[in-house]
Amino acid sequence: MENSSRKTTILVVDDEPEIRKLVSAMLSTTGYNIIVADTGEQAIKLFRKQPNSIDLLLADVVAPGMAGPTLADQLTELKPDLKVLFMSGYDSRQVVQKYVVEKGYMLLTKPFTVKQLEEKVAEALKGNRVSQSGGLS
Fold it and tell me: What is the biggest distance separating any 2 CA atoms in the chain, rounded to whole angstroms?
């Protein structure tokens, strides 16, 4: 079945309720279906219930319990073609460089505007990752 027959679904994961609420509101107005989780563990449970319907993981890089890159690794094992976009207030920290940029993921730096969020989500949905075998290491 073609993706065009259903809404694109984004799994938003952030430990801060205000961020989850804001990002959900920003993306809902553009027609996306939004699922929210406050922890990586909750995100995995939600994902396992409907892995084929989630198109994009939008997660904070730094989070208590399970960091965004760890969550992305686990979810992309379950669904290799899952698109991933990270958001972070720390764009130059070593963890961001090592686990996001060097793995070929896209990063949206907080704070961001609705337009910046929409553009990054659209870009991520088109295909945002370098090939597993090549390039960055």
Answer: 41
Q: Which residues of 35-60 are buried (b: 16+ CB within 10 A; e: fewer)?
A: bbbbbbeebbebbeeeeeebbbbbbb
Instruction: Calculate the CA dihedral of residues 89, 15, 98, 104 and round it to 10 degrees.
Output: -90
Q: What are the domain boundaries of the chain?
A: 3-126
CATH fold, domain 3-126, is Rossmann fold (3.40.50)
- Nearest Cα to Cα of residue 38 among 57, 56, 20, 50: 20
Q: Which of 78, 70, 83 is nearest to 47 (CA)?
A: 78
| pLDDT tens figures, 2-41 | 444 578 999 999 999 999 999 999 998 888 999 999 999 9
Question: Among 40, 48, 54, which residue's Cα sits nearest to residue 3?
Answer: 54
